[in-house]
């Protein structure tokens, strides 16, 4: 029994390693793809392009402009007229346009109060909102109010708000889902397409064992990928801190790989060829990845989506992984995440198992 | 070119696409993505779960708490617990912000002695953390200027005019970018399988042995897919303007023309994958990976192109999605149309891209047994 099982697993693994294209794509997804996502996305407003028109001709405007600097702002670019400035904003080369009117300096000196006009490209709502906040803070600091209250702000787990940490982790979890589903489904459908299922049937092996072994081999590939990605990309390139136990993360990943294999089994059961596998897995995975909270935190979503996300195993996996990496939750605090992944996982896996079992 | 052969071949492709239920992929997936992402991506932070520990329980501290309670950005609970218990709530992901008001807060304030309020924010989600930080600062600052009138007034007020997206709605910012993402991913996945499928099933040999030319074969493969996906250009437009109420201020012709070009480019990208791969599974995974990431990252949807630097700026200029999205955001929110030289340039780049990728595809495609 154990020998048959390991022979079947070995057969699948050899088949996988023979297809060098597939090996390359899987390796790419677990390394470079995660690296690019982590490096590429920066949703914080940083490096904002600023332009200005200065008609006040005074030192005040200079002093304010000198406070706009990296990493939040690029060096402000002077424009000869308001028309030129707004043309640059319309072409989306400049995001923030400051206009110092001719009365700016006079008003500030005489009345202690002046107005600063601001043109804002608010297409990217988040960044423009943050840009506005930055500017407000700069102007406030400049005014040098004797504030009696000091705010001591601590951003826990990620003091410098490194987006790369979060993005790389979220991307890795999405890659696991994507490959877990598609690889498993492909292993079964390819045999269906080629007609080699029938040969499998002729062998005196329990079909249930075949299914288990085939899906287990793909789980192994995914877990190996997770180990590589965590070691090389997360720790190697991004230096992500891990405040909890790495073993609990690998254990959670192992269970989650089974869950996604379960979805793959279901997809394999309902599709006749690879074309349909592609369709169904994308149709199932898009909402799954999306409802997981990888992009938007769950409690910020529409209530309908929030409730739907309760049945997404990825939700528990992502929250669990975040807790392990950033919040440093100890193993006994992870019960609900393990329960979510294992609970939904076993339902999905057994459903898929039954469903593909009916082919026999 | 033999028109009759191309026509017959196209008809065969059309029938296959419809018979293989590929039509579901063509029409269900784009709509599903735009609805899910359009409703789901919320960059704006509301209902941040805030726990205020008020150790002072004075009039001023009450006033401050009330300001948090009345803000739509915070879901406030006021509790009295020790600091460790509060930290554990953040660790268990039950609270986003903990604000601790110290004892004798009011007394020190009235005596004009400096006091400190401690704020702890869950930083696991960095963008949210930064936004929440700004909100907290804003509320406390407003409270301070009003509660403590002795603050000297030498103020600069910012009169901001938000162009293009006055209300700063997330829908306006995200939905046009989603069109660029969807029209890149969906056609590419469809065409990625068109040729590799025949390779894997062996039917490609009938093409090798027939007198059909390479160009005829490619046209016959791409045109049905292009026609089917052209309908999506209109469907997505309807969802954006009607369901998400994104304003449309520019030229519809420009939107349409640019989108047709862009769909052709995406089909070309998929076709390239189909030519260089041997198995369908590799083709599918490869297409998903090379389209979804640039569609999100280098599209200008989550981060303005003008804020990019270094490698990411170069990468953004390589993918077609940046040029298309510039035009889409222009037609939806800005409305300069072809008067703007930048739009003319980007449209020209899209034309060049489309030509380049189809020519490269037909050059790489080999009509022989390998």
UniProtKB/TrEMBL annotation, chain A:
> Where is this protein primarily located?
membrane
Where's the ABC transmembrane type-2 domain? 132-359
Q: What UniProt keywords apply to this chain's record, in alphabetical order? A: Cell membrane, Membrane, Transmembrane, Transmembrane helix, Transport
Localization:
Cell membrane
Q: Which Pfam families match?
A: ABC2_membrane_3
Task: State the annotated membrane topology for this chain.
Answer: Multi-pass membrane protein
Q: Which domain of life is it from?
A: Bacteria
Transmembrane regions listed in the UniProt entry? 20-38, 164-189, 209-234, 246-270, 277-298, 334-353
UniProt lists the family membership as follows: Belongs to the ABC-2 integral membrane protein family.
**PANTHER family xref list:** INNER MEMBRANE TRANSPORT PERMEASE YHHJ, MEMBRANE COMPONENT OF ABC TRANSPORTER YHHJ-RELATED
The identity of this protein, by name, is Transport permease protein
Q: Which organism is it from?
A: Hydrogenimonas cancrithermarum
What does UniProt list as this organism's lineage? Bacteria, Pseudomonadati, Campylobacterota, Epsilonproteobacteria, Campylobacterales
UniProtKB/TrEMBL annotation, chain B:
Q: Which family does it belong to?
A: Belongs to the ABC-2 integral membrane protein family.
Which InterPro entries does this UniProt record tie to the protein? ABC-2_transporter_component (IPR051449), ABC2_TM (IPR013525), ABC2_TM_bact-type (IPR047817)
Q: Which UniProt keywords apply?
A: Cell membrane, Membrane, Transmembrane, Transmembrane helix, Transport
Cell membrane found in the keyword field: yes
Q: Which locations, inside or outside the cell, does it occupy?
A: Cell membrane
Its lineage opens with:
Bacteria, Pseudomonadati, Campylobacterota, Epsilonproteobacteria, Campylobacterales
Q: What is this protein called?
A: ABC transmembrane type-2 domain-containing protein
Q: Cross-referenced PROSITE patterns, in alphabetical order?
A: ABC_TM2
């Amino acid at each position: 029994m154990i020998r048959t099982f390991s022979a079947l697993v070995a057969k699948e693994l050899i088949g996988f390693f023979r297809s060098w294209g597939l090996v390359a794509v899987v390796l790419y997804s677990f390394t470079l793809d995660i690296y690019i996502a982590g490096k590429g996305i920066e949703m914080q407003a940083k490096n904002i392009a600023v332009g200005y028109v200065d008609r006040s001709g005074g030192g005040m405007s200079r002093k304010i402009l000198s406070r706009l600097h990296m990493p939040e702002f690029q060096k402000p670019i002077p424009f000869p007229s308001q028309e030129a400035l707004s043309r640059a904003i319309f072409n989306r080369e400049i995001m923030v346009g400051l206009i110092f009117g001719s009365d700016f300096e006079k008003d500030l000196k005489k009345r202690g109060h002046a107005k600063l006009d601001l043109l804002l490209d608010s297409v990217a709502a988040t960044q423009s909102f943050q840009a506005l906040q930055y500017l407000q803070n700069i102007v406030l600091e400049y005014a040098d109010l004797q504030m009696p209250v000091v705010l001591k702000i601590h951003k826990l787990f990620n003091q410098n708000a490194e987006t790369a940490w979060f993005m790389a982790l979220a991307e890795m979890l999405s890659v696991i889902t994507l490959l877990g589903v598609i690889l498993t489904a492909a292993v079964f459908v390819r045999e269906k397409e080629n007609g080699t299922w029938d040969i499998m049937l002729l062998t005196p092996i329990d079909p249930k064992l075949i299914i288990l072994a085939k899906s287990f081999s793909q789980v192994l590939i995914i877990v190996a990928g997770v180990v590589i990605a965590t070691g090389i990309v997360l720790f190697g390139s991004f230096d992500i801190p891990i405040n909890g136990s790495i073993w609990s993360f690998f254990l959670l990943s192992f269970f989650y790989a089974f869950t996604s294999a379960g979805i793959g089994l279901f997809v394999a059961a309902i599709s006749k060829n690879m074309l349909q596998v592609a369709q169904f897995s994308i149709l199932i995975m898009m909402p799954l990845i999306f409802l997981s909270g990888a992009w938007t935190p769950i409690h910020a979503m529409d209530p309908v989506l929030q409730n739907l996300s309760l049945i997404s195993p990825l939700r528990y996996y992502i929250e669990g992984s975040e807790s392990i990496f950033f919040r440093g939750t100890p193993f006994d605090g992870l019960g609900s995440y393990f329960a979510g992944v294992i609970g939904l996982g076993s339902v999905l896996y057994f459903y898929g198992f039954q469903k593909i079992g009916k082919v026999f | 070119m033999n028109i009759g052969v191309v026509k017959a071949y196209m008809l065969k492709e059309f029938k296959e696409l419809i018979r293989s239920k590929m039509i579901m992929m063509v029409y269900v997936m784009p709509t599903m993505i735009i609805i899910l992402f359009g409703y789901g991506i919320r960059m704006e932070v509301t209902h941040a779960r805030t726990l205020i520990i008020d150790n002072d329980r004075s009039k001023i501290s009450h006033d401050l708490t009330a300001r948090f309670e009345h803000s739509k950005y915070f879901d406030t609970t006021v509790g009295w617990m020790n600091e460790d218990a509060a930290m554990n709530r953040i660790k268990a992901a039950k609270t986003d912000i903990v604000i601790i008001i110290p004892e004798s807060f009011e007394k020190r304030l009235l005596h004009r002695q400096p006091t400190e309020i401690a704020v702890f924010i869950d930083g696991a989600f960095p963008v949210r953390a930064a936004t929440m930080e700004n909100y907290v600062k804003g509320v406390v600052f407003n409270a301070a200027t009003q509660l403590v009138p002795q603050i000297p007034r030498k103020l600069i007020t910012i009169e901001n005019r938000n162009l293009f997206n006055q209300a700063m709605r997330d829908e306006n910012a995200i939905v046009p970018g989603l069109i660029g993402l969807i029209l890149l991913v969906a056609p590419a996945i469809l065409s990625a399988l068109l040729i590799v499928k025949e390779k894997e099933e062996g039917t490609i040999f009938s093409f090798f042995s027939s007198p059909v030319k390479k160009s005829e074969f490619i046209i016959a493969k791409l045109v049905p897919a292009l026609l089917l996906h052209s309908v999506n250009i209109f469907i997505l437009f309807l969802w954006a303007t009607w369901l998400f109420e994104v304003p449309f201020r520019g030229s519809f012709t420009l939107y349409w023309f640019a989108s047709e070009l862009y769909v052709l480019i995406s089909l070309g990208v998929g076709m390239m994958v189909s030519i260089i791969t041997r198995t369908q599974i590799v083709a599918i995974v490869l297409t998903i990976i090379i389209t979804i990431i640039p569609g999100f990252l280098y599209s200008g949807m989550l981060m303005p192109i003008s804020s990019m630097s270094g490698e990411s700026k170069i990468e953004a200029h390589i993918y077609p999605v940046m040029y298309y999205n510039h035009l889409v955001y222009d037609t939806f929110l800005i409305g300069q149309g072809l008067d703007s030289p930048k739009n003319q340039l980007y449209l020209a780049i899209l034309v060049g891209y489309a030509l380049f990728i189809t020519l490269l595809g037909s050059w790489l495609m080999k009509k022989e047994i390998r």
